Amino acid sequence: MNKATNIHPVFDRLLTRDDREQRLGQRAKVLWFTGLSGSGKSTIAEHLERKLHNAGYFAQVLDGDNIRSGINSNLGFSIEDRRENIRRISEIAKLYLNSGVITICSFISPTRAIRAQAAEIIGADDFLEIFVNTPLELCEKRDVKGLYKKARAGEIKGFTGIDSPYEAPESPFLDLKTADMTEEACTEKAFAAIEKAIEKS
Fold first, then answer.
1. Residue 127, domain extent
2. Which residue(s) pair with 199 in the sheet?
3. Digit-coded pLDDT (tens) for 122-133
4. Which residue, 102, 133, 160, 180, has fewest beta-carbon neighbours within 10 Å?
């Protein structure tokens, strides 16, 4: 891909992230939820967004299905397309971050390399990886969207956890073991873990 050479970014002339954080009364972070399909990522992210809102914070969820129905609708599920999917999402999340927004990303993001790419784009200090740690057998039992059944039947190829790998985080900011906790308890634990990071001093 040829990179454009006739571009002139004006980031240095715009309001700073600190200006925006001061106005919003918070410190921006990117909360990166990762886990298998059906692990509960989207539900916990939705609950956390609402809890942050009710507590006076300004947050925005970026969810896998929503993004793939819009800006990334031209991408498939090969490892290359997954990498590009996460690259674009990370750039969007970085824009939100620099706007002072607490950004909640909910994406399978199956490999450590892909998540490392996201952290590099966003910035390691602002990237809080949250592992929605749900065993495959429980995700498959839930099968909310019927995807595991289709994958087992060979109707979906390259499905994470079945015929495409998922690499669990080795040292996430937060590990939510959903087999032992309700979604509400996971939300409370996530909120408690991030509260100090997002409070404006």
1. 28-195
2. 26
3. 999 999 999 999
4. 180
